[in-house]
Amino acid sequence: xxxxxxxxxxxxxxxxxxxxxxxxxxxxxxxxxxxxxxxxxxxxxxxxxxxxxxxxxxxxxxxxxxxxxxxxxxxxxxxxxxxxxxxxxxxxxxxxxxxxxxxxxxxxxxxxxxxxxxxxxxxxxxxxxxxxxxxxxxxxxxxxxxxxxxxxxxxxxxxxxxxxxxxxxxxxxxxxxxxxxxxxxxxxxxxxxxxxxxxxxxxxxxxxxxxxxxxxxxxxxxxxxxxxxxxxxxxxxxxxxxxxxxxxxxxxxxxxxxxxxxxxxxxxxxxxxxxxxxxxxxxxxxxxxxxxxxxxxxxxxxxxxxxxxxxxxxxxxxxxxxxxxxxxxxxxxxxxxxxxxxxxxxxxxxxxxxxxxxxxxxx
Length: 363
Hints:
By secondary structure, the protein is of the alpha+beta class. The protein has helices at about 15-40, 180-185, 205-210, 265-280, 320-325; strands at about 40-45, 60-65, 115-120, 135-140, 145-150, 150-155, 160, 170-175, 190-195, 200-205, 220-225, 250-255, 260, 285, 290-295, 300, 305-310, 325-330, 330-340, 360. The protein starts with 16 loop residues before the first helix and ends with a strand.
């Protein structure tokens, strides 16, 4: 006999419209959070450091699965935020709980010339996963030796591959006011007047800069470079020992996981801040020529993770690894995939959207 026949049927409880909306919102937030964490996240380009490859106002998707998504380091935070609650300066997280961070397997590793989104390393006021997002091109990977000679990058002694839309700084001497349309018509988006309005400074591809030489109202086009021997005090790692600048830099070996260095005075000046700040050590004291770990002065050090050297394609208008150092592997977020929208912040009603850039790939 089927005794279930005699059991009273449970009465179905219908959800009200408010409950249905709440369930739908919770589901959407959870789904969006998982997609954003593991697969794809949207970003925008706020600065011209990657022009002419990426323009201010480009909106792009960044793949997390190419290099593998990271487990959250800061688990207690408001959903779908990064650092602060939208439109406020209120922190969206608490760092009371910090978890070890791991990376799931991805489709590959960071390669030279990848356009990479990462957490800005020297922003120490936030946990690693909530530092500001930067986007640059990976110029050198772990184990490489990088050098810049007269603005040309060399990797392991050979000329590096130059991005197609790489830009440099130029000065234009002109007694006339140059219309914005002239710059845009010649492929220049990043420009301003300098030196009491006597010059324009622009960042342009060499072939675009050459176009200005033929304009009758341009008196002179002057390339701007920091000369060999000029010491830029802002350049990584230590201007007092390494007389480098943005156009004459290195040679510098990029640290690799398992790479062991002798802790000589030069190596401490070159790698000491990296060991102290990014290797996950609890007790590191760094002096000018001395490094102490747990109160002891080791003779050698073996790196615990891979590092990368990032540069902007707009070479003279980019705060990058030349200025603040290596990008640790645990700071890498993902690889830029494609542009899904591009809005010109200076465009008018009819040309606000850059239609030609929609759904274009990123090289």
